[in-house]
Amino acid sequence: MRDHAGAAESTGVGGTGSRVPAPATVGLGRVREAMLMAAGFTTVVPLMKFTVTGFSMLCFLLVLLFSARLDNRRAGAPLLLAFAGSVAYVISSIVNATPLLAPNVPAFAAYGLYLCGLLVLVSDLDELFALMVGVSVGTIGFYAVLGTALTADGVLAALWKYGFAPAVTLLVLYAIARSPRHRPMAACAALVILAAVSVALNFRSHALICLCAALLVFVDRLRRRPTSLPVKVVTVAVIGAAVAKGLEYAAREGLLGSALTDKVEMQSTQHVPSILVGRTEPPLSISAIIDHPLLGWGYANNISSGVIDHAYQLAVSIGFDASYPFRYIWFLPDGSVSLHSILLGSWAEGGVFAVLLPLWLVWACLTLIRFAHRHPAWTAALTFLGIQGIWDLVFSPWSYNLPVVYAAISVAALFITTGNLDRPVRRTLSAPPLGGRRSRPTRPPSPPAQGGAPSGRIPETGPGERRRRGGRRGDAFPLVGEPDSLARAPGGGRRRRDSVGPPTKHVPRHAAPERTAR
């Protein structure tokens, strides 16, 4: 499957304590790469809104056929949280008499299925990103052919904002990582170009995410040593605020087009923190949580008018202008309520137990950002996925193929923190197998005795013999070089494992070996 010339894989980190960086190239066989891409491309077929696709059926079959390859030690925490969230959604739906098949109810179950399928399919980051290429192409195909109500007009700006941008970014970063001479600065330049495209197409949040990811990769490359997570978070916050102010100034000066200028002028009346400019859904989600904190509302459309009135008052109290069109944003054209946040929306709909998995996903995204430097080929992709994942958890609703993306983020975080899967044909050189120990160097022999031979050693008798540590208590050094076919017999002698005769003559352990004529 994999070329042995690149045996030290790009994901060779055995855990959080390992400081050995992985090679900066990707060594994935072309055939396996194509198979994984084809598997990911099955996400192009929608079966039930954004939760169930053709890839769901493939994952279900894989889990049934190869369940023995699923490592429960890795997936235990996220699967347990996904199960708790699904149960919380079902209970909340029953208590509130809302539909059990509401759009967000199966999301956690779909995530759990995708997580199990990915753990069966892939064993390192190379394979994971190859599969994500197929998922990205499937996402682009879905929005290009079918799409949603927001992309039905086929306008490029809408397609880029609601469907294409993250998928195209992953495709570009994968192509750079797979190039024969991978250069981190090429990934930084690509992210800056993609940010410029997003600004031109009125998608400021994606531009901000790309610029922050490029900055983190550039800083790590410039310092030539890893940057701590708090420093990275502060850097992203400061640079993000500066970039947002710069884009706002450029839009007011008319440098970024009339559409963005009009949008900035409408939002200029809001006296709220920059992170909430143009985002009025958090007051609605917080009001719904305050009213039903334990079990939630079951479904966002079930939120009462009294809660909506309280959300309006809360929005005005924190700085939003009273004339802002809240209802136009809170209610979609089909009449459904938009909470526009996976984190807050899960709590508002499913209750307190439904928010546990999104919180764990925040940790997974931070893990990608923190340890991205350990995987030079995937540093830019991991950083981008981590920042984009946190942004979508806080400020975006569930969308098409997003459960697959979060399953991939979870698998990447598990690979980084616990090492690659313990499979004999894919074991890395820079890390021990899962649950194992690194081989310790053989202790040097003792100084030569009077007889001329090292004490405490018996010479090896031929190639292919196993060197093992052992010996009786009190020996100065353990016995090494004992032939694999010999076993210790009662009384101190040695005999062959397949022999049934008496043991051979005992040789004193500290005596010099007899020299025999050849």
Automatic annotation (TrEMBL):
<keyword id="KW-0472">Membrane</keyword>
<protein>
    <submittedName>
        <fullName>O-antigen ligase</fullName>
    </submittedName>
</protein>
<feature type="transmembrane region" description="Helical">
    <location>
        <begin position="378"/>
        <end position="398"/>
    </location>
</feature>
<feature type="transmembrane region" description="Helical">
    <location>
        <begin position="75"/>
        <end position="95"/>
    </location>
</feature>
<feature type="region of interest" description="Disordered">
    <location>
        <begin position="426"/>
        <end position="518"/>
    </location>
</feature>
<feature type="transmembrane region" description="Helical">
    <location>
        <begin position="351"/>
        <end position="371"/>
    </location>
</feature>
<dbReference type="GO" id="GO:0016874">
    <property type="term" value="F:ligase activity"/>
</dbReference>
<keyword id="KW-1133">Transmembrane helix</keyword>
<keyword id="KW-0436">Ligase</keyword>
<feature type="transmembrane region" description="Helical">
    <location>
        <begin position="47"/>
        <end position="68"/>
    </location>
</feature>
<feature type="transmembrane region" description="Helical">
    <location>
        <begin position="128"/>
        <end position="146"/>
    </location>
</feature>
<keyword id="KW-0812">Transmembrane</keyword>
<feature type="transmembrane region" description="Helical">
    <location>
        <begin position="158"/>
        <end position="177"/>
    </location>
</feature>
<feature type="transmembrane region" description="Helical">
    <location>
        <begin position="101"/>
        <end position="121"/>
    </location>
</feature>
<feature type="compositionally biased region" description="Low complexity">
    <location>
        <begin position="449"/>
        <end position="462"/>
    </location>
</feature>
<feature type="transmembrane region" description="Helical">
    <location>
        <begin position="404"/>
        <end position="421"/>
    </location>
</feature>
<feature type="transmembrane region" description="Helical">
    <location>
        <begin position="206"/>
        <end position="222"/>
    </location>
</feature>
